[in-house]
């Protein structure tokens, strides 16, 4: 049962990740200066910037939880998080689907590490399986709501889903 739930969650997460990453506009660019966009968003106090920062972090929390469930070491988990986020940024650049940004890599890594930390913290509790399931469900619902909010332009940004 747990393996099926894990596989189902992985498929849903992959779908949500693909929608978030590849349903953007067709602009292209690259930023290799760490925290350049983050600093700009904070200085200008743009709501879109804040949602971008939080979204990049939240997007990788489930991946960190998945890695924790797979019982990988912290070092291997960091390598896998970096490999996935770098792959996404490279594909975005190749297919002109957004700006390839070192800030995204850093924020995704932070999100993955938060997911790992949440998994390890929850795994110490008495009802860990139920808590992890609820945590993942809440996180997935939040991501779906974020996709819908972006689709309908809640933050002034529109992504085309259908």
TrEMBL record:
- VanZ-like domain spans which residues? 11-121
Q: Organism source for this protein?
A: Enterococcus faecium (Streptococcus faecium)
Question: Where are its TM segments located?
Answer: 5-23, 48-69, 81-99, 105-122, 134-159
* Matches recorded under PANTHER family: MEMBRANE PROTEIN, MEMBRANE PROTEIN-RELATED
Tell me the protein's name. Answer: Putative VanZ family protein
InterPro entries cross-referenced by the UniProt entry: Teicoplanin_resist-assoc, VanZ-like
User: Pfam families recorded for this chain?
Assistant: VanZ
Assigned keywords, A-Z: Membrane, Transmembrane, Transmembrane helix
């Amino acid at each position: 049962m747990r393996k099926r739930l894990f596989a189902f969650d992985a498929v849903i997460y992959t779908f949500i990740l693909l929608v978030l990453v590849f349903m953007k506009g067709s602009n292209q660019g690259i930023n290799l200066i760490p925290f350049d966009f983050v600093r700009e968003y904070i200085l200008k106090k743009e709501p879109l910037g804040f949602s971008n920062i939080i979204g990049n972090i939240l997007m990788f929390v489930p991946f960190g939880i998945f890695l924790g469930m797979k019982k990988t070491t912290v070092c291997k988990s960091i390598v896998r998080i970096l490999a996935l986020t770098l792959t996404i940024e490279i594909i975005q650049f190749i297919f002109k689907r957004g700006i390839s940004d070192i800030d995204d890599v850093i924020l995704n890594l932070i999100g993955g590490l938060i997911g790992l930390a949440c998994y390890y913290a929850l795994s110490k509790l008495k009802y860990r399986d139920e808590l992890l399931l609820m945590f993942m469900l809440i996180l997935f619902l939040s991501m779906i709501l974020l996709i819908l909010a972006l689709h309908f332009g809640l933050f002034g940004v529109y992504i085309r889903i259908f």
